[in-house]
Design goal:
heterodimer, A: 495 residues, alpha/beta, nine-stranded mixed beta sheet, two-stranded antiparallel ribbon, B: 469 residues, mainly alpha, seven-stranded mixed beta sheet, 17 helices, 42% helix, 5% strand, flat
Chain lengths: 495, 469
């Protein structure tokens, strides 16, 4: 134990005192030391003596703890928190209580973000019906997705402990409501590396509009080396900022430039034998390769008309549909973790766009077809059985009408709700047509099959071949986990 | 001798036996080698070193015998094995002393080498039985690398409910942590734990099991004594039981120490439920595309030519010999390169050649890979001819032919592929009739023809707005 602390302290000290370490950290971080602390080890094959440049590439593919069901993850986050009561959690009892005052027994001891005093109940603003062989309830807000329910497993009783967007999004993606922890995608790329050496292992796509409330920390690498943070790609304009060559610099010259820099670095390595110099060389090479490969994979113009029709994509625009198609293309090329953020789901009812019966319905229309298309497209390409698709928000919404500052709202809206909300997962060994968890008859509390945020993380890691309890990173003198000291794999939705 | 026994010094000196025995073993082997080598003319000079070496060896052998005898008095060893070990040890001492005398007075020079050889044989036998006494009879044979070996493990069960409590949970713990000292040969405290009959019988201090009351059973009590306690089991320095092991023993005794009951027949306490939860396999146990058997790992020379082409070769899991191969960065991978996969034949389970220059002639090599379960050939040049080759791949479960030139004829070849579970033929020349024929032949196969479309709905373009009042 003591030597681990000393080693870490030395590494830290080196990062502060040496200019080279500081610069290194900005680009690749402690790649080499990071690999050493991963349980599955950095040697690909036992007794391996692979070429040094390769084994020091922090994104070199690595083996998980056990054979994995999922090779990639597509995580669809609806930032702002969609209302489960208008989409998947059918509560006919709530309809009967519509507009009645909320009983005091429910409100006692509870805290809400905006609700004050005694609010009125708000019945579901959508029409529900059962679909598929699994007879799952889905509302008419999601007519295309309703036909896909046999491909997914619902989690109807997810719980969180943060009722504000920023902390809740951080919690959902890093396992902690405070800043500083690595995101799920960072953990995964740190653990598995990248199968495709010409593309980043962790890609983030946003639908334009607002960035998530928690900022870019939701795809940050926290205390992991910064090479594992999500790379934000854009579906409009240049896919990756600052990657293309400056005007007037042709590719040959750029290549020679990188060659020259690498040659200087190689000489530096011969003098100092610092393995991180090799890591830096490999980063220059990846950036150069990405200049070619990223624009290729990020270009959806080459897709046939049939695919555009399926997804409802419009090339050149920033949209959730475009991002769904890109997610499929990236996963097809071996990218480990694709994180999609859509925005505008915060249906408080303060204006038309946040009314659960108007704005929210329009939001559902924007995702309904693309998500259904994504599931179908992954399926027909044989990718769904090794791609885990996760859908959800950062929390749910109350069965009560919001009464901000104790006043009546102009539109129908719901407040933030932490006690029960719906998420779903699909593909990669997840049960087809499954459902786990139940809420009470008004959808306020979870009564069965409660799932914590850490359980979601544990399950994602499990499908990727990791025992979440053994995936640790040494930091500040103790091992850290994505699931901290919590987390149970949700076995009920595993096929 | 009596002084030693009464004063208590006997056992102390006796415990030096394991240390002392290694002196004659080493020294006498050197003496034998010197004796033998001195027969060669160029090495005759070594003959002078034989006597002093023998003398040291003989003296240490005598010392080891004395210490060994004192140790044996503490009891707890199988009589027959102990006798054989003792007499062989004494034989070594006697023979080495005899050789000393012969050498010193130059008697019977012809007999020196044969007597030395006999001494070494006796030494080996004594050493082997000594090892058996300390570590248990099967210490050596259990590690025999050839043939099948049964690995007893409590680590994971597919269904813990069906596990036999004594046979599958308790016995493996005893076997790993207790048998070493409580077996047929080495009855420490007169106790044998290798069988329910012996456990019930107890040791020289009486029974070790009080039915249903673990707190009064020595078998449990001693496990939880402080490590410094003399009565603690396993004693300090020996491999200890894990907390889970202790919980299992406690629960088993609490349930009346049954010898033939399954987990589901007994009442579970909250504590044991937690232990069982932890014993569930950490994966879901079975991966649909993984073989059941184990395989040795590939080495760098086998992988290097593929890596050179930009092909990724990755173990499917840490410590697992099976590998997955991906040509996602090697679009030039073609027919001529397929033979590079042959050295990985045993280990290769998942192969991704999607969007490469692979064609039919590569499939001959690929079909001969005996472990291959998952094969991605989407957007490659493979045709119906290749499917004929593929029909000899008997383990294949997943086949992706998306975007290839396969037609119904190719599907006909695949009808022989009884192992196949998933087939993807989106964007090929296959017709509905061809798929129907394949489905009839292979009812367990899931064929995905793709080409999905979503219906056009009025709501797809409807924008919801506030109705004017």
């Amino acid at each position: 134990m003591a030597d681990k602390i000393i080693k870490e302290a030395n590494d830290r000290a080196a990062r502060f005192f040496s200019r080279r370490h500081f610069l290194q950290d900005c680009v690749t971080g402690l790649g080499a030391t990071a690999l050493g602390s991963l349980v599955s080890g950095c040697n690909l094959f036992s007794g391996s003596g692979a070429a040094p440049v390769q084994s020091l590439n922090p994104l070199e593919p690595r083996a998980p703890h056990f054979p994995a069901r999922a090779k990639s993850v597509i995580y669809l986050h609806m930032a702002g928190a969609p209302s489960q009561l208008e989409m998947f959690d059918y509560k006919p009892e709530l309809q009967k209580l519509h507009n009645q005052l909320c009983p005091q027994s429910i409100l006692e001891g509870k805290k809400f973000a905006f609700i004050r005093g005694v609010p009125r109940m708000l019945g579901p603003q959508a029409v529900f019906s059962q679909h598929g062989e699994s007879r799952a309830w889905v509302s008419d807000f999601m007519p295309h997705f309703a036909e896909r329910v046999d491909d997914v497993s619902f989690l109807k009783a997810v719980q969180t402990d943060q009722f504000n967007h920023g902390p809740a999004q951080l919690f959902m993606h890093t396992g902690s409501a405070r800043l500083g922890r690595p995101s799920t995608g960072s953990w995964v790329t740190w653990g598995l590396g990248s199968e495709n050496s010409n593309l980043p292992g962790f890609v983030v796509l946003t639908s334009g509009g607002k960035t998530p409330d928690a900022g870019k920390s939701v795809w940050g690498s926290g205390f992991l080396p910064s090479v594992y943070q999500g790379v934000q790609c854009r579906s409009k304009g240049e896919p990756v900022l600052y990657l293309s060559d400056p005007e007037g610099l042709n590719r040959d010259l750029r290549y020679q430039g990188i060659q020259a820099i690498n040659e200087v670095n190689r000489l530096e390595y011969e003098t100092f034998q610092d393995p991180e110099i090799l890591s830096r060389i490999s980063q220059y090479e990846l950036a150069y390769k990405m200049q070619i490969s990223v624009p290729g994979v990020m270009d959806i113009n080459s897709e046939p008309a049939y695919i555009h029709e399926l997804y409802g994509t419009e090339p050149g625009k920033e949209s959730f549909a475009n991002n769904c198609l890109l997610a499929r293309k990236l996963v097809e090329k071996g990218v480990r973790f694709v994180q999609l953020f859509d925005w505008g789901w915060d249906a408080h009812g303060t204006d038309e766009s946040t009314a659960v019966d108007l704005g929210m319905r329009n939001k559902c229309r924007e995702i309904d077809k693309p998500i259904s298309a994504l599931l179908l497209d992954l399926k027909q390409r044989g990718l769904l059985d090794e791609t885990l698709v996760v859908w959800g928000g950062e929390f749910g919404r109350t069965p009560m009408q919001e009464n901000r500052d104790g006043k009546e709202m102009p539109y129908m809206g719901r407040d933030h709700h932490v006690e029960a909300f719906t998420m779903w997962m699909a593909g990669a060994g997840i049960k087809r047509g499954g459902s786990w968890g139940e809420t009470d008859e008004i959808g306020f509390s979870a009564v069965k099959g409660q799932v914590a945020v850490h359980d979601i993380h544990a399950t994602i890691l499990q499908q990727l071949g990791f025992d979440h309890e053994k995936m640790t990173y040494q930091f500040q003198g103790r091992p850290f986990r994505l699931t901290d000291v919590h987390g149970h794999v949700i076995k009920e939705i595993l096929g | 001798m009596m002084f030693f026994l009464q004063s208590g010094w006997g056992l102390f000196i006796g415990r030096f036996h394991p240390l002392l025995v290694h002196l004659p073993i080493g020294i006498l082997i050197i003496a034998f080698l010197l004796e033998w080598l001195s027969r060669f003319r160029q090495l005759a000079v070594l003959g002078a070193a034989v006597f002093p070496t023998l003398l040291f060896g003989a003296l240490s052998a005598v010392a080891a015998c004395v210490a060994g005898y004192l140790l044996s008095l503490s009891g707890g060893y199988d009589e027959a094995a102990l006798n054989l070990h003792m007499w062989m040890g004494i034989a070594v001492a006697v023979l080495s002393l005899l050789l000393c005398v012969f050498r010193k007075y130059n008697l019977f020079p012809k007999s020196w080498l044969p007597v030395s050889a006999a001494m070494i044989i006796a030494l080996s036998v004594a050493g082997h039985y000594g090892g058996n006494l300390t570590h248990g009879e099967d210490y050596l044979t259990a590690a025999w690398p050839f043939g099948t070996k049964e690995v007893a493990t409590t680590a994971s069960f597919k269904n813990i409910e069906d596990a036999q409590v004594f046979e599958q949970l308790v016995q493996p713990i005893l076997e790993q942590k207790c048998y070493g000292c409580h077996n047929e040969q080495k009855l420490k405290g007169g106790l044998r734990l290798d069988g329910m009959v012996h456990i019930r019988k107890g040791g020289e201090n009486g029974p070790v099991l009080k039915d249903s009351i673990p707190e009064m059973s020595e078998l449990y009590k001693r496990l939880v004594l402080p490590e410094s306690d003399d009565h603690r089991m396993p004693p300090k320095g020996k491999p200890q039981l894990t907390p889970q092991d202790v919980e299992i023993l406690y629960w088993w005794i609490q349930q009346g120490a049954p010898d033939s009951m399954a987990v589901k027949e007994l009442q579970k306490t909250p504590r044991i439920a937690l232990v069982f939860e932890g014993m569930k396999p950490s994966g879901d146990g079975v991966h649909p595309y993984m073989p059941r058997t184990e395989v040795s790992a590939v080495n760098d020379e086998q992988v290097a030519p593929l890596v050179k082409l930009g092909v990724k070769v990755m173990p499917v899991a840490a410590g697992n010999g099976y590998v997955m191969v991906s040509a996602v960065n090697a679009s030039a991978f073609g027919n001529a390169d397929a033979k590079l996969l042959e050295p990985l034949a045993k280990q290769l389970v998942w192969l991704n050649l999607g969007s490469t220059a692979t064609g039919d002639s590569a499939l001959k090599v690929i079909a001969s890979l005996p472990s291959l379960t998952r094969l991605q050939l989407e957007y490659t040049g493979v045709t119906d001819e290749g499917m004929q080759q593929l029909s000899s791949a008997k383990q294949l479960k997943y086949l992706n032919l998306t975007g290839t030139k396969i037609t119904d004829k190719g599907l006909q070849y695949l009808q022989k592929q009884a192992s196949l579970r998933e087939l993807f033929i989106y964007g090929t020349g296959v017709t509905a009739a061809g798929v129907q024929q394949l489905r009839t032949a292979l009812p367990d196969l899931r064929v995905d023809t793709g080409g999905y479309r979503l219906p056009v709905l009025a709501t797809d373009t409807m924008v919801f707005k506030k109705q004017p009042a």
